[in-house]
Amino acid sequence: MNFRRQSILSIALVTVLGAAALPAPAQQPQAQPGAQKASSVDADFVRDASAAGLGEIGLSQIASQKATSDDVKNFAGTMITDHTAANQKLATIAQGKGIAVSTEPMKAQAAAANSLKQSQGTQFDAKYISLMKKDHAKAIELFKKEADTGQDPELKAFAAETLPTIEHHADMASKLTPGMKG
Questions:
Q1: pLDDT in single tens digits along all 182 residues of the chain
Q2: How many CA within 13 A on the CB side of residue 38?
Q3: What is the end-to-end Cα distance of the chain in Å, rounded?
Q4: What is the domain partition of the chain in residue ranges?
Q5: Residue of 30, 49, 78, 79 with fewest CB within 10 Å of its CB?
Q6: Could you count the other beta carbons within 10 Å of the beta carbon of residue 164?
């Protein structure tokens, strides 16, 4: 065998063995058989809706402990219950489509939670109520958009079914007053 041919074979062998030693690429979540691949719009909705839900839960857990108003505490309990249920339902749908849900709240909600923890008394109640009004207005937009323009029929249906609950939450938040005793 001449030197040139031996060099080419050596390079080829090193290349093949080197490739075999590389780790396998990370596996993406597997969709269930028969499931359609979700569009990026639907995947964005899942990520944003699940993160927003986690934020509502986190903020409401703080409020259930620190609020001075019984009405605010009751509202916080409703937020925890309803958003936990919605996130669980969304996670089940998303899992079947191979879409990952968020594991943490949106950055703005996490920052708001840190700020909220520093508040006391009726100032706390006022901040929490303000956050709930703002967050629910954003959630209504998010869910309306998915219900109207989403590509996945199951996610569109979830958004349409969940939207009245979110609108009810916004209405409830608009009626809360800091320091109000229930």
A1: 554 444 444 443 334 434 333 333 333 334 444 444 567 889 999 999 999 999 999 999 999 999 999 999 999 999 999 999 999 999 999 999 999 999 999 888 888 899 999 999 999 999 999 999 999 999 999 999 999 999 999 999 999 999 999 999 999 999 998 765 54
A2: 28
A3: 93
A4: 40-175
A5: 30
A6: 10
Nearest to 46 by CA among 109, 125, 101: 101
- Regarding the domain with residue range 40-175, which homologous superfamily does it belong to in the CATH classification? Ferritin, core subunit, four-helix bundle (1.20.1260.10)
